[in-house]
Amino acid sequence: MFTTGVHAWLYWATGCYFTAFILCCYHMQRTCRIALVAGFISHSLYLLGRGWLGDVFIPNAIFEGTFFLPWCLALISLVRSVNKPYKNPGEVLVLVIVFSIFSVFYAKGLIPPTPKKITVWALVFFISESMAHAMFYTGGLYAFFSMVGKNTTNGFHSWVVWGFIAYTIAQVTGAIWCFIGWGNTFSWSARHLSSAVIWTFYAACLHLKFIPGWRRKTAVLTIAGAALVFFISFSDYIHEMSFLRVGG
Question: What is the pTM of this model?
Answer without folding.
Answer: 0.93
